[in-house]
Specification:
Elements lengths: L1 E2 L7 E6 L3 E12 L2 E11 L5 H16 L4 H24 L3 H12 L7 H18 L9 H8 L7 H20 L11 H4 L6 H4 L13 H9 L4 H12 L3 H5 L6 E2 L4 E4 L10 E4 L2 H10 L20 H9 L9 H13 L4 H7 L7 H6 L5 H15 L4
Antiparallel strand pairs: 1-2, 2-3, 3-4, 5-6, 6-7
Helix pairs in contact: 3-4, 3-6, 4-5, 4-6, 9-10, 10-12, 10-13, 15-17
Length: 389
């Protein structure tokens, strides 16, 4: 054992015929009233340079001067590292509800008809589910957690609560299929019926307020007397029975007035399919009046040049004339008129509203959009709407 100078008191080079050369740090610690000599190996002479050994010895000397035993401190550090490694490895195997939720959403988003559905899922879960069960392992989630989560909103925000419950049920079903949990699904209605009032008993569905179809001609007459892009958009909504967004975001390039066709792209349709809308003579007259507007390609340009009018523009225009109905309600007005005043088949009336009316097998063979028959229906509807002009 040879002492090494250089200011690193306690550093030695140990020469052993069996093990070769190695660095050793010698020190004394107080044990009660006595001094106890200790030795701590610092590594092989071949692996650790003299400068490194001296630096290590200086650090250990600082520990000794604080009254601590470097060997005991080394043992503590090793235990802490093992504990940390165990915690990290365990955390990697925990399948939290939040992790499963994002996996499920990312997997299913491709089949959803509109990108906003993904945002709606995440927003509702972040608001109502994650604060209660987000960090829990999915295998530990019980009906009691769902009770805590739903109790406050089941009666006060019932529509939101039913959507959140359904989304949690789907995510937990995904967790079960993935092998992360074995128990029955605590978010199923069967599991929750013990404490949740039935939806049918606490929530009465409301429909969009609709103007009676008999009053449409008078409204069209009043709209004609008004100035403003919101009133013009309402006229097209009524004559085509289309949804607000389908009309508001319409581009001039979508309209072929010669062939009397309005082609609405799939990304603006609720069913994510291209829709061909037959244009009636009355509708074309209204569209020709709009051709004077020059603001990019929008049919109904908003105050900001690069965007169309907002939904509020049409709602505000309608409320100024009829406070007791909604823009979406005109679709109901059209459907009721078709059912009560015409003999058109149900499937023609539903296709005019771009509703899916065929089963998968039937749809595979019936690929026509029945455009000509729908054109006859819309001609009759336009004639009714404009009968007071």
């Amino acid at each position: 054992m040879h002492a090494v100078g250089g200011g690193a008191t306690g550093l030695y080079l140990c020469i052993n015929n069996a093990n070769g050369k190695s660095w050793v740090f010698r020190y004394q610690i107080s044990v009660g009233q006595f001094k106890k000599r200790r030795e701590m190996g610092l590594g092989s002479y071949q692996d650790i340079s003299l400068a490194e050994a001296r630096e290590h010895a200086r650090e250990l000397r600082k520990i000794v001067l604080t009254g601590k035993d470097p060997l005991i401190e080394k043992s503590k550090n090793q235990r802490l590292k093992k504990q940390q490694a165990f915690v990290e490895s365990t955390a990697a195997t925990i399948h939290t509800f939040e992790k499963c939720a994002y996996r499920y959403i990312n997997n299913k988003a491709a089949e959803w008809s509109h990108p906003k559905q993904k945002k709606q899922w995440i927003s509702s879960l972040e608001t109502y589910a994650f604060p209660v069960i987000g960090k829990l392992d999915v295998k530990d989630i019980t009906v009691h957690h769902l009770k805590t989560l739903l109790d406050e909103i089941w009666l006060t925000k019932h529509t939101t609560a039913t959507r959140v419950r359904s989304r949690i049920e789907n995510i937990l079903a995904f967790a079960s299929i993935s092998g992360y949990r074995d128990d029955s699904n605590p978010a199923s209605l069967k599991s929750l019926n013990a404490f949740l009032p039935k939806s049918s008993k606490v929530h009465k569905p409301t429909h969009f307020a609709a103007l009676p179809y008999a009053d449409i001609p008078q409204l069209m007459r009043e709209l004609k007397e008004k100035e403003g892009v919101g009133f013009r958009a309402l006229e097209i909504v009524i004559l085509t029975a289309k949804r607000s967004g389908e009309v508001r975001q319409a581009a001039k390039s979508e309209f072929d007035l010669n062939d009397r066709i309005w082609t609405i792209p799939a990304d603006r349709m609720k069913n994510n399919k291209v829709h061909r809308e037959p244009l009636t003579t009355q509708c074309i007259k209204y569209l020709q009046q709009l051709s004077q507007h020059k603001n990019n390609d929008w049919l109904f340009p908003g105050p900001v040049k690069k965007i169309p009018i907002s939904d509020m523009t049409m709602s505000k225009a309608l409320k100024s004339l009829r406070a007791d109905c909604t823009v979406h309600g005109f679709r109901s007005s059209f459907r009721q008129w078709a059912a009560e005043q015409t003999n058109y088949p149900r499937e023609i009336c539903e296709l005019a509203l771009s509703h899916s009316v065929l089963g998968k097998v039937e749809a595979a063979y019936q690929r026509s959009d029945l455009f000509e028959k729908r054109q006859q229906l819309m001609n009759d509807w336009s004639a009714h709407c404009c009968s007071a002009l």
